Amino acid sequence: MLELSLQKAFPGFRLALELSAKEGEVLALLGPSGSGKSTLLKLIAGLLTPDRGFVRFQGQDLTPLPPERRGVGFLFQDYALFPHLTVAENIAFGLVEARWSRKEQEARVRELLERMELSPHAGKRPQELSGGEQQRVALARALAPRPRLLLLDEPLGALDLRLREELLFFLRKTLRGEGITTLVVTHDQGEAFLLAHRVAILNKGRLVQVGPPEEVYARPQDAWTARFLGHKNLLSPEESQALGLPPRPHLLPQAALRLGGDQEGVVEERLFFGSRVGLWVRLRGVRVYLEALDPLPHLEEGARVPLGLDPSQAVPLEG
C-alpha cells in the first residue's frame, strides 16, 4: 500500500493532504491547474522534499531516499525521450542504469516492444515517430525496470484529440495488465474515470473527495466538485425550494428529469450535438438542463414541453 501524509508550501500555495492507494490500484489525481497534482507526484518521486510528512510504500518509508533508490517510474508529459538513442535503447536505458544483464535487458525490451506494438520501430530515433508512438516508447521506458510504483503526469496531454482517444484505452489495458500501483495526474475527468479504479479530486492543495469514479460523479460532495465534474443543474437553496426540495443546495442529476410528465416547462435553448440534443428549460422559474438521444426537431426555443421531475433523485450538497 502507498500511504501519503504530506505538506509543502510555496509562495501563494500550500499543499496539505493525506491519501492512500492499494497495491496494484490505479488512482487518478483530478483537479484544475494549480491544484497541486504535479507537486504531489514530485513529492512521491523524491524530486521535491516535503516540509512535513512522509511517503510510505509497502511498509517502507521512502521519504529520506533519493529518487533513484525509490523504485518509482515517472512518465512526464513531454516524454523526455533521448533523441540520440533508438527506440530500443530508450526503453533499455533504465535497465542499463539498474545493471540488468545483457540477456535480461534484451528479453525485457523485446517483451515491451511487442506489448506496445513498437517492434517495427525498434531501430528508429524518437523524432522519426508519431506523437502516439513516442508516448508508447516513454511508457515502455517507465515500465521497463518493473517499478514498484508508477507516476504518470498528464500522459496524454501532449497529444491531439484523435490520438488521445486512440491511446486512452491502450493505456488503460497496459496499466491494468502490468498490475503496478499507479498514480495518474490529469485535468480531464473522462481520462480519469476510464483509467482509474479510484479518483481523488484536488483543489488548492487539498483533497476534496476520493472514491470510485461512478460514486464520485454521481454523488459529488459540494457544489465546487459538482461544477468541476461538469454537472449543470446546481440548485441554490431558493431554486431547490421552488422545485419542491428542502431549501439547501442540491445537484439535480439527469436521472431526475425526463421528457413527458405532468409538469410543463418552456424551452429556452436547444443545443444539437449530433447524436443527442441538450435542452435548457425553464421549469417553475428555474432553468434546468436535460439531454435526449432523439433529435426532437419539434422542440425549438420557446416551445412548451411536458416534463417529469423526480425530487428523490436530487443530491444534497455542502455549501
Explain this structure to me?
- With 319 residues, the chain is of the alpha+beta class.
- It has two domains: 225 residues, Rossmann fold (3-Layer(aba) Sandwich), CATH 3.40.50; 84 residues, OB fold (Dihydrolipoamide Acetyltransferase, E2P) (Beta Barrel), CATH 2.40.50.
- 28% of the residues lie in helices and 31% in strands.
- It is built from nine helices and 17 strands.
- The strands form four sheets. It has a six-stranded mixed sheet, with helices on both faces. Strands 2-1-4-5 form a four-stranded antiparallel sheet, with helices on one face.
- A hairpin with a 2-residue loop joins strand 9 and strand 10.
- The longest helix is centred in the middle third of the chain and has 18 residues.
- The two termini are 33 Å apart.
- 35% of the residues are buried.
- The mean pLDDT is 90.
H and E string: EEEHEEEHHHEHEHEEHHEHEEEEEE
Q: What helical percentage do the residues reach?
A: 25-40%
Class by SSE composition = alpha+beta
Widest sheet: strand ordering? 6-7-8-3-9-10
